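Example 254, ligand magnesium ion.
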Amino acid sequence: MIINKLKIKNYRNFKDAEIELNNSLNIFIGDNGQGKTNLMESIYLSSIGRTFRLNSENELINFSENKSSVEISLIKNNYNMKIDLLLEKNKRKTVHINGVKLDKTSEMIGILNNVIFTPDDMRIIKGSPVERRKFINIDISQIKPKYKYLLNKYKKVLTERNIILKNYYTNPQNKDIINIWNDYLVNTGSDIIFLRNEYIEKLKHYAADIYADISGKKEKFEMSYCCNIGRSEYLDNEIIKKSFHEKINNNNKK
Ligand SMILES: Nc1ncnc2c1ncn2[C@@H]1O[C@H](COP(=O)(O)OP(=O)(O)OP(=O)(O)O)[C@@H](O)[C@H]1O
Ligand SMILES: [Mg+2]
């Protein structure tokens, strides 16, 4: 995938800018506060549909304007593609891919693949597991559309199951229904664990090579995926499911 062109209007401190990009490496050099990170952010926004900064979406629009747009032309699998993003103050943003409007912004994930690394991303290593999960969720969703679907499904199943657990003793029916929801939770959750493990197993080889380079081979880099059901054999979906079920059964009384 190659981004050829980036056109931004009223985006943060940019009034109107059009940048033709080189198809290998592009480096942006500028003074502090000149807009380098803003440029990166506009690309990220066109990839994931949201900013990596903590600001509200209105702040993406230039302070003295009400509308902003980002237009990206790219080549993917030999096809020319265009992503158009329109931001309007206090409104939901709209996204067009090749002129066709998307129903949901999240549908754009996976078209413009991107990985961002900023100083704040040190929290992937130093911070809590939620930061690492967020990072790998964004990455895997870009590679596998199925993963995004599984995450949404898992959230819904978890919410439904929690409602049933809350009314476990007040509604006698729930004692039968809970097993159905446990199965949903285990099946969806196991697929997620499997894909996360698959991703980490791939990533760790790249990371180990890069780290060997940085450290002059003096240190060895390793990483693995550990989740709540314990470090069982994550390469086999059936074993994951079994451990997941066991974990739920062990906690049943609690
Ligand atoms: N909505 C907005 N309207 C106008 N200007 C904005 C808006 N949001 C941010 N800015 C301006 O953008 C500038 C920051 O740009 P950016 O963070 O991209 O700089 P940078 O080139 O990455 O700087 P550094 O080298 O310090 O990282 C600031 O001057 C800020 O005031
Ligand atoms: Mg910056």
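Summary: The chain has two domains: 2-108, 121-250.
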